[in-house]
Amino acid sequence: MKILQLHNRYQIRGGEDGVQQAEALLLQQYGHQVDVLEVSNDDIVSPIDKGLTAVRAIYSFPAKRQVATRIAQVQPDVVHVHNFFPLLSPSIYDACADQGVPVVQTLHNYRLVCVKAMLFRENQVCEACLDRRHPWLGVKHACYRDSPTQSAVLATMLATHRWRRTWENKVDAFITLTDFQRQKLIQAGLPAAKLHTKPNFLATAADLPASATTSVAATEPFVLFVGRLSEEKGIAVAIQAYQHNPQLPGLKIVGDGPDRVMLEQQVAAAGLSQKIQFLGYQQKPQVLMLMQQALALVFPSIWYEGFPLTIVEAFGCGLPPIVSRLGSMAEIVQHQQNGLHFTTNDPVDLAQQIHRIAQQPEFQQALAAAAHETYQQLYTPAQNYAQLMAIYDRVLQVA
């Protein structure tokens, strides 16, 4: 099978970029021909570039021509879109339709229904635009990068393509990452028959232990946070949990982001610098090693999340996650089976769950074993390949 992947890469590498690359490699390993047409936000440099990008984010004729040319060259059986915003734009769907090539679109976030793509505003979940035909509230609240102008571009793009029925008529199948996300998108008006749930997978299986680890190597017990240091990730909640109970095992924080300085100041002011350690960005091997040593993964996000690969990596390492009882996280992690839930934005409850897992080693080990089993049952490359091919076969049969 020939697959043409289309992807708009971010300036700062994100989870979508990694998933696109992992799927391309997976398909190639199974003998498929994969061609990737990738554009990058690194190309948006000058004020003229930014102005053109704003206009073309709604509908880009250059991107449409570029995709049409590549389709003519490659003659793909399927076009798989990962991210079209902002340089490719929804015009690429017309290019595919004009040449009769079926389209699969992975929905890594809530871009098709939310200006910010996160259903998140003012530090809390927001569904104000979910069932509206025009997301004007996203402009009113300047949801995209705190800019009314940039938010208006996104709102115009969404309204234009809802009016044109682009999503209904020009996309043959959408991939949602969880059933929770699928239900939210159905609520927003996307066609239920075209929404197929397929999770992300862990492409680095060779780096994982053969069986679940029980953590605690030659080090003091600790729990681990891995992620971007920004408000929606809820790391401030984890720090507040330690303010509530300083006797908890140590917390190692892996990652960087706009809130790092503020969070370090918060830790220092609370006298927790010996208990909470900021490790900054770490390469994947170092992250997996930490996961194999930790007691638990702390994942306190306060937004719905898409499908955090960090949780799957934890499963693969036999590391039980402690997650917010919210959105996709509450679906992926089964409370008291392969991890624990805590009440979203509640540092006292989070502290209780960390204390529980630290004080009950047999319980921690049972969760660790179940976490590893979850990875083996649901998130291996082979299982994900079968799910992806089933979706491709479905759209080819319809086409």
Q: What features would you describe in this structure?
A:
The structure is a single chain. 44% of the residues lie in helices and 16% in strands. The protein has helices at 15-29, 47-56, 61-74, 91-98, 136-140, 148-163, 166-170, 179-187, 235-244, 260-269, 284-293, 309-316, 327-332, 347-359, 361-378, 381-398; strands at 2-9, 33-40, 78-83, 103-106, 120-121, 124-125, 173-176, 195-197, 222-226, 250-254, 276-280, 297-299, 321-324, 340-342. Helix 9 (235-244) packs across helix 14 and helix 12 packs across helix 15 (361-378). The radius of gyration is 22 Å and the shape is globular.
CATH topology of the largest domain: Rossmann fold
Give the overall average pLDDT. 93
Number of strand elements: 14
CATH superfamily of the largest domain: Glycogen Phosphorylase B
Low-confidence stretches: 213-218
Instruction: Give me the number of helical elements.
Output: 16
Distance between the amino and carboxyl termini? 15 Å
Instruction: Report the major sheet.
Output: 6 strands, parallel
Named CATH architecture of the largest domain:
3-Layer(aba) Sandwich
What portion of the residues fall into strands of 2 or more residues? 15-25%
